[in-house]
Specification:
Layout (H helix, E strand, L loop, with lengths): L6 H13 L16 H13 L3 H4 L5 H17 L7 H25 L2 H24 L3 E3 L5 E3 L4 H21 L8 H18 L2 H12 L8 H24 L1 H13 L5 H14 L9 H9 L10 H31 L7 H12 L9 H11 L53
Antiparallel strand pairs: 1-2
Length: 430
């Protein structure tokens, strides 16, 4: 039986997740040290050291793929020009922090009630951020009618809120058990968060959101349950389409994309990034210098590839990118398995949204990116360990052997099983 999770660790985790949407809200007091989520993340790491056997259990293969990518970045970073030592060190140190937090968050997400509480904390933060944006508190106009928060990139705010909206619908209807206690909150918060997303004018966030919500229909269950979630998905997408075409800025941006092929210059950036990869396919250009080289080809001092996959490929070549993509592939496998377990289709929906968005952006330096991956990595629940609902402090964590491989029986079939035929003892057949 796993150890109890200390309340200090659990609530530090909730606070860390809650603070992530406000990452750009730096005040003069904390900006010297870092962002608010960074400070809370350090507190969470310190608290996790109080229970290393809980927070630092051996992670699955996907995590080690990302560690391998980090090692490649570290080795290539030592070969960079001395002029880039500081930015390379900053990038590597940030990536090391992200991996450490991913490790801790993964182990906490393995506890069902803690995972649900963390997702609800994230949704609540997104709802508050959306209300502030609609009221103009902290909202900043970034040109052409687009709105952002605290001066952050509008696309970043759009994706953050999109993941929050998917989590909201997924928690309520996308998991195996419908959360009736949050149904009223979901119906109230959905139009608020949805409207705030449209206000950002982010096309990639909107497309990722629509795809993510659509994938909620792959959850396991009866035809009645699938019809229910299908109806919810249709209503949700209908509202988003209506809201998008009711907003002049978003409608104009979508029309330019559909009729003129407008990509805000990303097609040119992607073409040069691909050429850079083909020039150095094995080891790439190294961390940081890949953006410097890309910038020189585009007449700028530095330029991000605006594509996660091209960013990794130009940075570490095939040596690092194959490890990184292998990790993503294993996460996709976990999300696919999770659809017939407690988390249902929510992991697949969130993973698809963030991976689709990253075709137009590079988000692997953001905390929310690694938090989402940690949730997906922990989502392939073991059937026999999660059959009996017990208090969180006694809940068995998810079996991650083979990326969450458990018994083949679907949780949706529990209700139809004969009394006394389902075993919860490890190793006993069902």
């Amino acid at each position: 039986m796993p150890e109890n999770v200390l309340p200090l660790i659990r609530y530090a985790f909730y606070l860390f997740v809650f603070a992530i949407p406000f990452e750009s809200a730096n005040t003069d007091t904390v900006s010297i040290i870092g962002s608010i989520p960074m400070i809370i993340g350090m507190l969470l790491t310190g608290a996790a050291l109080l229970q290393p056997r809980v927070c630092f259990r051996t992670p699955p293969g996907a995590f080690w793929c990302f560690v391998g990518y980090f090692v490649v970045c570290l080795v290539l970073g030592t070969t960079q020009n001395l002029d880039y030592v500081r930015p390379v060190f900053t990038k590597l140190f940030t990536l090391a922090q992200m991996l450490a937090l991913m490790w801790i968050c993964f182990n906490l997400f393995r506890y069902p009630e803690i995972g649900k509480g963390a997702l609800l904390a994230f949704v609540a933060a997104c709802a508050i951020l959306s209300v502030l944006q609609m009221l103009g508190v902290g909202a900043v106009s970034v040109g052409r009618g687009r709105s952002s928060m605290f001066g952050d990139n509008a696309n970043t705010v759009g994706l953050t809120l999109s993941l929050g909206l998917i989590a909201l619908v997924g928690i309520t209807y996308g998991r195996i058990a419908i959360e009736r206690k949050v149904t009223l909150f979901a119906w109230t918060a959905f139009p608020i968060i949805g409207t705030a997303i449209v206000m950002t004018g982010s096309r990639a966030a909107l497309v990722g959101l629509v795809v993510g919500i659509t994938l909620l229909v792959i959850r396991d269950g009866t035809w009645k349950a699938k019809l229910r979630i299908g109806s919810i998905v249709v209503l949700a997408i209908g509202f988003l389409v209506f809201a998008a075409f009711s907003n002049d800025t978003m409608r104009a941006r979508l029309e330019r994309s559909f009729y003129q092929g407008d990509t805000a210059g990303r097609d040119k950036i992607h073409t040069h990034a691909l050429m850079m990869f083909l020039e150095k396919p094995m080891l790439g250009w190294g961390p940081v210098y890949n953006t410097v080289e890309l910038g020189s080809r585009l007449g700028k001092s530095v330029r991000d590839p605006h594509n996660l996959y091209l960013s990794v490929m130009t940075e570490t070549g095939l040596l690092g990118s194959l490890l990184f993509f292998a990790g993503l592939g294993l996460l996709g496998r976990s999300a696919w398995k999770a659809r017939v377990r407690i988390e249902g289709a929510l992991p697949m929906a969130m993973l698809s949204c963030i991976l689709l968005f990253n075709m137009a952006g590079s988000w692997h330096h953001r905390k929310l990116f690694w938090l989402t991956l940690a949730y997906v990595m922990a989502s392939a629940w073991s059937f026999r360990e999660t059959l009996q609902p017990v208090p969180v402090q006694f809940s068995n964590p998810i079996n991650v052997g083979g990326q969450g491989a458990g018994t083949g029986m679907s949780l949706s079939k529990i209700a139809h099983a004969e009394p006394g035929r389902i075993s919860t003892r490890p190793g006993e057949p069902t």
